[in-house]
Amino acid sequence: MSDTVYEKSSEIPENQIVSPQSPLDKILQFFTIKIAQALINVSWITPNGITWTSLLIGGFLASFLILKNYYLWAVLAIVISGLLDCLDGDLARSRGIASDTGNLLDSVLDRYVDFLIISALILGNPRDNLVVGLIALLGTTMVPYIRAKSESLGRSSIASIGSRAVRTVLIIIGLLTGQIFPLLIALAVISNVAAIHRFAHALNPGNE
């Protein structure tokens, strides 16, 4: 896809809601901003290219490696993908070409990465992992959906314990230890708790 998806945005309205970040997100962004600044004049590296590369590495490659039980290599792919997932937006902002369209592309492809990784974890042992894996998949889908829907309605959002960064850390720990079923239980619990937390916060009349 052409990099024209990252067109310059118009001035940000004063009442635009700024999405909160978890501490892990802030730590990671500290490094990706520095990388983005180093790449600002490297024209052949584009935000769109980084976004799609993140999907290929973190979604398709990592899932394939999980299915083949190459967990250590899968972890490496997930870490690289996570770094690229932050870098694309930071590079677009550094170049002054960030836009809602670019943000949309990034968010949609993130959902595909989440789906592919959790599906691979389920398919590794579907007899034991199917039910808890589907609950984990539901939670990881609802967390960003509730946030996006709340903000589209003009309600404030809130950082939660089940942020994507936290879920990624859990996946890495689960793969490194080979404890896939406990990993899926942890993902199911933390993601659905986070979804309920965000939903309750959004329903609070004070956040209208």
From TrEMBL:
Which InterPro entries does the entry link to?
CDP-OH_P_trans, CDP-OH_PTrfase_TM_dom, CDP_ALCOHOL_P_TRANSF_CS
Q: Which Pfam families match?
A: CDP-OH_P_transf
Q: Which UniProt keywords apply?
A: Membrane, Transferase, Transmembrane, Transmembrane helix
The membrane spanning regions, by residue number, are 38-64, 70-87, 130-148, 169-190
Signal sequence bounds: none
Q: Does the keyword rRNA-binding apply?
A: no
Q: Which family does it belong to?
A: Belongs to the CDP-alcohol phosphatidyltransferase class-I family.
Q: What is this protein called?
A: CDP-alcohol phosphatidyltransferase family protein
Give the species this sequence originates from.
Limnospira platensis NIES-46
Give the lineage. Bacteria, Bacillati, Cyanobacteriota, Cyanophyceae, Oscillatoriophycideae
